[in-house]
Structures are given as structure tokens and as C-alpha cells.
Design goal:
Helix content: 25-40%
Largest sheet: 7 strands, antiparallel
CATH superfamily: START domain
Order of helices and strands: EHHEEEEEEH
Number of domains: 1
Strand content: over 45%
Radius of gyration: 15 Å
Structural class: alpha+beta
Length: 145
């Protein structure tokens, strides 16, 4: 299954960046390709959300579960249902050298083998670009605080 990993350094405390990443319903405010994130259930250690994003102007929707590890500053997410076959991974937040290093890993499968064979590299590029956009937007928002 394809996997994409992106990272960014943010000039803000790791706890601040982590807490901002947990506020997913705010993502549409500062992430251009995220149209909506609706919280379906909120618990102290996990969240169920409905997402609507744009990839090349095409809407993609899904429901995901995010598990929060407040001690390790880690968010694990997994698609429960939606337009994709598989979409899961983790956000990690590590403070070092006066910055927070955020890594976003994404394992994905669009569920159409023929499509993956034909445009696999393009899909991987789009997943990477979307991940980089999310991290860049998180950086701007975190450093603004």
C-alpha cells in the first residue's frame, strides 16, 4: 500500500502545536483544501469526525477516528468509511533545537486497482502535496499564536 511521509519544523512549543492539531474542526479556517470537518463524537482520548476536502477541485469525503496520546504527543487516525478504501497514519510532534518537528504519515488506497496502476505516481504526488499543505497551514497558525 502506498505511504507518504512529510515533515515540517514549527517555531512553537510542541504541546501548543499538538493541541492545535487536535482541534480538527478548526482546520477549514486555515487549511485551504479542507472544506469541512464536523465532529461527530468527542471523547478525552479520541474523536470521530466527518471530513470534506478537495483534491484537484474534486470533493473527497470520509469519516475518521483519531486517537490521542497526550503523553507521547501523537495522533493516530484511521478511515472508518468514505470515498477511499484506506486512509490512515499518524501525526507526531517532537520538540528539539527550539522548534517542534511535526511528521505526518499517510498510508492510503483509493480502492481502484486499475486507477492506481494508471495514475499511481500522480495520486502519490497529490497525497504528498495535500499533506505538505496541511503542515504548512498548521505552521502558520501555530506561529501566529
Amino acid at each position: 500500500m502506498p505511504y507518504v511521509e512529510t515533515s515540517i519544523a514549527i517555531s512553537a512549543p510542541a504541546r501548543t502545536v499538538y493541541e492545535l492539531a487536535k482541534e480538527q474542526e478548526r482546520f477549514p479556517e486555515f487549511m485551504p483544501d479542507v472544506e469541512a470537518v464536523v465532529v461527530l463524537e468527542r471523547h478525552s482520548d479520541h474523536l470521530l469526525t466527518r471530513w470534506k476536502t478537495l483534491v484537484e477541485e474534486a470533493p473527497i469525503e470520509w469519516i475518521e477516528e483519531d486517537r490521542f496520546d497526550d503523553e507521547r504527543l501523537r495522533i493516530d487516525y484511521k478511515l472508518l468509511e468514505g470515498d477511499l478504501e484506506t486512509f490512515e497514519g499518524a501525526w507526531t510532534f517532537e520538540e528539539r533545537d527550539g522548534q517542534t518537528h511535526v511528521v505526518l504519515g499517510v498510508e492510503y488506497d483509493f480502492g481502484v486497482p486499475t486507477l492506481a496502476e494508471l495514475i499511481g505516481p500522480t495520486l502519490q504526488k497529490k497525497v504528498r502535496e495535500n499533506s505538505e499543505m496541511m503542515l504548512a497551514a498548521l505552521k502558520v497558525e501555530a506561529e501566529r499564536a
